[in-house]
Each structure stands twice: as C-alpha cells, then as structure tokens.
Amino acid sequence: MQPLSADEMTAVRAEFPAFSVPNQTIFFDNAGGGQVLKRVADKVYEYLTTTSVQIGGSYATAKAGNARVLAARKAVAEFINAPDDTEVVMGGSTTSLVFLFIQALLPSIQSGDEIILTNTEHEANVGAWKRLQAAGAIIKTWELNPTTQHLELATLDKLLSPRTKWVAMTHASNVLGTVNPVKAVADRVHAVGGRLSVDAVAYAPHRLVDVQASGADIYVFSFYKVFGPHYAVMWGHRDLLVSLANLNHEFIAPDDVPYKLQPGNVNYELVHGVSAIPEYFAAMGTRLGAPATASARARMQFAYDRFDAHERFLSERLLTYLRGERKVRVLGMPHVAMTPEDGLYRERIATISFVVDGVASPAIVQHMDSVNIGVRFGNFYAVHLVGPLAMAKHGGAVRVSMAHYNTAEEVDRLIAELRTLIA
Q1: pTM score, whole prediction
Q2: Is the four-CA dihedral 173, 80, 253, 229 of positive or negative sign?
Q3: CA-to-CA distance for 373 and 209, rounded, in angstroms?
Q4: What are the phi and psi torsion angles at 395 (to 5°)?
C-alpha cells in the first residue's frame, strides 16, 4: 500500500483547479461527487466557444462538432473496455439512464418474470426496477448478511430460478464500501437464463471499469463521480440494446443505437468534456511510471493501480484509528481487504462509513463543517440499509469518502478532530 510521493501528489492535485483555492475545504465527500479536472472544464469551454452548433450539418463547424462527439464516444468506449462504441449510451445521470432503460425494457417483461434486487443499493438502482411490477414482474430481495455485512452468493443461489429475468446490483456499495463479486454473480445469473445490470457509480472512481470482464449485460455510472461533468454512461451488449424499445422519435430505426436510447440526443459539450477523463488517467499513468510504449488503456490501468494503492494506504490509516475506538462501529469491512467466513476474498473502496455510540452523526458533521472538513451524514439514498445497519438511532451514518487526490495529512487532521468528539 505504497502512497503517492510528495512530487506525485503535487502533479495530481495540479490537475484540479479546486486545490488552488486558498483555505479550500478538505474534500472527504467524494462519493457524492469528485472534484472536476481542469482538462474537463477546458473541453466543455472549448466546445461551447468554438463548435456550439447542432451536429449533422454539412458545413465545417458542424462537422467539427460531430467529430468531437463521436471521438468522445470512442474515448469512453476505450475507458470502459466496450468492444463497440455504439454500445455506449450517455445521458444526464445514472438515475435518469436507469429509468430510461427500464422504460425501454418494459415491453419485454411478462407476468411472472422475476427481478432480484439487493437491499444495499442506492435508490437509483431500486426505484425504477420496482416499476416493472406494473407489468406483472415479481420483485425479490437479495439481502446482505447482517452479521458479516456481505451479499453472500449462497443467499443469491436460493433466489435464482428459471424465471429470473434480471438481477440488479451495485459493483461497490456507496455506504459499506464493499466491492461485490459481480463476475461470480453474472455467471450464476446467466446459468439460469437471466441477465445482470450493474450500478458502478461508487466503483468507477476507484477501479478502472472493464465492462467485458464484469460479465454484466448492462453497466452504468456517473462521470461526475469520476472527476468529470454531471453526465453519465450506460453500456450494454449491442444485441440487447437493439432489442429494447425505441425511446426516441418514431422514425428512428430499431438498430440505430445508441441514438434510439438517447431522446433529444446527448449534451454535446459535456460529452466532449468527458473525453478528458480517460486522457487524464492515461497521462497520469505515464507520469507515474507506465512504459512509454504502453497502450492508452494500459497507462490508465497503471494510474488506477497506483491510485488504488494510495487510497488503501489512506483507508487503512483511518480504519486503524476507528477500530481502536470502542464507541465506533465501522459499517462494512473493518480492513481494506479480507476473506470472511464464506471464503470469498473481498476488498473495499476508500468510502468509510461509521456510527458512534453516544454521539449523533449530525453533530459530528456539524463539527467538521466548523473546521472546514467536508464529510456527510445520512443514509445516502441507500434507504434499505437503514434497518439492517441500525443507523436511524444515530441520525444516519457518518461517511468519509476519499479519492486519490486526498493526502495523509488531511486524514490525520480528520482523525485529530474525531478524537475531540469521541472520548
């Protein structure tokens, strides 16, 4: 768990304008939204000031704008390892993309089809799916083991049946921080003839997405969690996307994907801005020591691996303190990685939630506000975890969500402030 060096951290933080602001907040609310790269803001500005036209025209500026949008889609495809950039659907947010997907899926749902959801999800990956009940779908819930706080595969096996149409789950919990074994889930779901949809909003800032390796049939996350603009992406196998109902104008062809699933088309300037995210990770891969001859995706992976090691270092630093406080209960794994009783090795991302006996979570956050440390409390829209994790009596959980640009000094300052509250 080797952290980034001082020089490397300086290079990273120089990419984010927010860190040049005097007396800036310490950002530990990154699961709510990451800081935005200058590269992203520059590209949004570039599009709006040089190619702000409706694409599709034959004149030079329209062609240039169209080229930027298509180039960005190809860049996103490489970023997520999609085999075909026409499988990349973009829209306003993960929530909106999931709702659009469910609308397009609705005509294929028959009475008695079974949908399995987990009780660890952000509501974005629950509410839309439940609307399929209107078409006769049966909703089942895959509940975490309240003792281990894991989604266990043995529990899923009991829920799967030949009627299983879809399973929808998070790749990493935005409260527990646990990285879920989505490939093992995909194998089980596909074995009974079902399909898997994965919400990677909490996962994508911390691990390089590989939609093919995930085994998922649908995969979605938001770019503003990955240091970009308020925009999102949904990937799906082309044959699946073609089979979905058209959400666009009635004359759009069934195989015209992703356009038929992007009503009103994409936001051109945000799409162009998004293309700077993979550029950043590839550039940082080179800066951090990736071979100059490596592919762009290999350099991205190198950067993510270095950032992951840094985040593990920060996480274990905070977890070590929290484990030592008898009044503190960490939600999710108390270590950055472990093998629990079910024998399945698991890791956690740098999102750490906890509650403190005798100290209300809102009071902790109010104190942190007063010393300019940005953390949050609540259920974080994972409302179905409130009961199993006994959060309500604490006023919700305190969540510290770190990113690769956070420093050990920032973590130490947080710990010092926590010591004043937890005695």
Answers
A1: 0.97
A2: positive
A3: 29
A4: 80, 25
